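Section 3.1 - Work completed
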Amino acid sequence: MSILYAFVGVPFTMLVLTACVHRLMHLFTYWPIALCQRRAGCLPRTAASVHFLVLLVVVVLCFLVVPAILFSAIEESWSFLDAFYFCFISLCTIGLGDYVPGEQPGQKLRPLYKISVMVYLFVGLMAMFLVLRAFHKLADLQGLTAFFQLSHCDEEEEDEEPIVETGPNDQPDADRASSKPLDPSSRVSYNSINR
């Protein structure tokens, strides 16, 4: 039964997380970067870099440090490092299960505590995904994604040869324009696709 639950639940959760983060990107990423560009007159790269650093610090404080302090206070057997380890492992989706909150006998308001932990994990996953998306946008602006793409083939001579040999009068003008050899220096990416 748990395999069926995971088979349906994990993709559905990722779909919901992706949809939520897509909506939150406007509020927490695009709007602050545009505001920084207009008010401070920053360049897009500078605005994106400053925004990413601020977003990263806020997420680390709000979703790793502060919850670790709370968990270390609520869970009697956890130190701050144990609680920080739980927060980091859980929000990075590693989730080893060696630390589970709310498992101590006699805990007050245990059902409410379990629901609160579940909400924290869901919102924390959205925050981590938001940081990853903001980093991806920053990497696109800085040109880092092009750095990690595979290089083009060295077979430039083969690319310049036409596939089908035809005479100059056999093709209409529109076909001649579209059958130009590919330029090996041009880089096509997903960002160049019209949406």
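Second construct:
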Amino acid sequence: MVTELKKKYAFDIEVVKKTSFGLLQRASLPKFPAIEIDGAVVFEGCDITTEQLESAIRQRQSA
């Protein structure tokens, strides 16, 4: 899902794996799973659909 949207909207992806999370527990990270766009957490602690993610990307690009 993200790979297709990355090609369409040209954005960078940073993945924080649960195994890496143990090292970063003291950092202020959102609850898994989470999506952050331009420094703002837009989805946190829930699964989302491709349509929801694409809508959030479009909203931020048009702002």
